Automatic annotation (TrEMBL):
Signal peptide: none annotated. It comes from the Bacteria. Residues 28-165 form the MOSC domain. GO terms for molecular function: catalytic activity; molybdenum ion binding; pyridoxal phosphate binding. This is MOSC domain-containing protein. SUPFAM superfamilies: PK beta-barrel domain-like. Pfam families: MOSC. InterPro entries: Benzoxazolinone_Detox_Enz, MoCF_Sase_C, Pyrv_Knase-like_insert_dom_sf.
Amino acid sequence: MDSWTIEAVCTGTARPFNGAETSAIAKRPRDGMVQVLTDGLAPDEQADRRVHGGPDMAVHLYPLDHHAWWRTIIGDHPALDEPGGFGSNLGVTGLCEDAVHIGDRFRLGTALIEVSQPRQPCWKIDHRFGCKGMVARIVETGRTGWYFRVLEQGEVQAGDRLERIASGHREWSVARVFHALIAGQGSPEELARLADLRALATRLRDKASAKRS
């Protein structure tokens, strides 16, 4: 079994972000135990529940490995020193999109979580870092992170292990799904298969179905 150390557990609150807009993208490390509930960590907020949060986007992981790469692109931005700088709930090193598959199940502290979908980046990343073009770079490189759904509620704290206890669809890494569906490079055959991939978030299955029509 594969396992990784959880270096930080991060949550955030919705704060003024861009004029009338609010965002909880800036997640801060928490001390002690944090509850892992069906809709995510408690407490953790999402400013726009239409496009963020919910059971299929309960817990977000953006690999800490990518922070070093971003320094070569944008320099030493203070948010790159924060494990939740990209809105990630979990600070983990050594686990990236090509090694994680839709439907993979992990023990997170005492909770059980399952990979549900890649993250689809939005303009708030560019605004957070004050650097235009970051979203385009994410789409180009696939450095996107991913979401988990919560199958069994529990608790987690920094220093616990993130342990993969079951493999999902090995042919569908997060990297491949992102490339095919969100980056728009999927073949008709890939889109048809994604539309029927039960472990994939419903919203993305519907998107795959619409694209193949």
